[in-house]
Amino acid sequence: MGNVVMNASVSVDGFIAAENDDPGPLFEWLVSGDVPLDDSGVLNVSQASYDHIRPYWDQIGVTFAGRHVFDITDGWDGTPPSGIDHVVVVTHQPPPEGWNPNAPFHFVDGVEAAVTKAKELAGGRTVEVAAGDIGGQVFAAGLVDEVRMDLVPVLLGSGKRYFGSVDSQHLLEDPDIVVQGNRVLHLRYRMRR
Predict the structure, then answer these.
(1) How far apart, in whole angstroms, are the C-alpha atoms of residue 94 and residue 35?
(2) Is pTM, for the whole model, over 0.90?
(3) Percentages of the chain per state (helix, strand, coil), in multiples of 5
(4) What is the C-alpha to C-alpha distance for residues 62 and 104, in angstroms, rounded to an integer?
(5) What is the DSSP letter of 175?
């Protein structure tokens, strides 16, 4: 069974976006290099970032996020991001009116059900959950196997927290991956069980 990984770019002070969902400079590292990360022609990173990110992206079978992320991205126009096979959307609401029922998006009520559905769809590949409120809920429920952070050298001062509303102590293992790219430090922590 694949790992459940919480992942996002994050400021040094722990934010993944401003209150208005603007990530500000958090994604600059994705356009600060000369190595294409995908076929979009937009994402170009350092060689070190490519060597770290590309193999990870190739392992992801399913990503899931909350309805808020789904809505602000307009459901990625019905196509999962970054070549991922399926998206699981945690929501208490039905799909939007006119939504294509054949799009590989699955609307599920609750994080436990979302993890179960995502693992089923992933077929042993990695399940990625976006950091923030939903990621924090999955983390607090003990359903995350590892935490990945693309740590960007900026202070946002306030905004949406990487771990959402998690307000209790949780121990992680020491970082087992530390990779320095252009304008980013890639970190991976396994959960201490």
Answers:
(1) 40
(2) yes
(3) 30, 30, 40
(4) 10
(5) P
Is 60 in a helix, a strand, or coil?
strand
Calpha distance 9→113 (Å, rounded): 26
pLDDT for residue 61 is more than 70: yes
Phi, psi of 170 (to 5 degrees): -135, 140
DSSP state of 106: E
The answer to whether 148 and 180 have CB atoms below 8 angstroms apart is: no
Q: How many residues does the chain have?
A: 193
Helices (runs of H) and strands (runs of E) counted in the chain: 4, 12
Residue ranges and CATH numbers for the domains of the chain are 4-190 (3.40.430.10)
| Predicted confidence (pLDDT) per residue in 82-134, tens digit | 778 999 999 999 999 999 999 999 999 999 999 999 999 999 999 999 999 99
